[in-house]
Amino acid sequence: MTVELINYLSQFISENRRAKFDEIVNYRTRYVTVVLEDLYQPHNASAVLRSCDCFGVQDIHIIENKNAYTVNPDIALGSPKWLNLHKYKKEENNTLNCITQLKAKGYKIVATTPHKDDYTIESLPIDKPIALIFGTELTGISDTVREHADEFVKIPMFGFTESFNISVSAALCLNTIISRIHKSNIHWQLSEEEKEELILTWLRNSINKVEMIEKKYFEEKRS
Predict the structure, then answer these.
(1) CB 110, CB 149: distance < 8 Å
(2) Span 40-45, mean pLDDT?
């Protein structure tokens, strides 16, 4: 059913865009995911989403404890509609809720901080799926993250400034980790079923009045 619906909806976009979907979906991954804890500057939040899209990271987990997550469309450049955003904002401790759920899915929780030196991003083991956590712009990761993280990574710096901007940190980390998993024997790509579901989502996000078009499709199927 999914493949049939994909084929039907594909006639409502250009051949070039449809070919682009097929190309890009092969580089999407859930082996690496990004977690953003309490970001409050829209330009940083938007820049991280843009980097995730560019590096093929499909899932972004957004923790809202004190700060609501907002996006600057001029910086994000439409990237949110190509990504899966998972928000955590209904619990007393949203950070712990997010970490618990990711660990249950098999992710290793990796916190980025300039104050720990367990690994560099080049030396971080990649034998398990990785959830990279980036903390708030002013104070960094929370005590909850420090307590429950499995590993810590630090980006080497050689200047006077204590840390990189969070969006720069995310881009640097993703550039290195994605390059490493692409060169490895790890099965980092999506399953065929996940690819189909993602292409269907992208089609729906690309077609005007798609609900009406799908309704017509299912009516025709029933007749």
Answers:
(1) yes
(2) 75
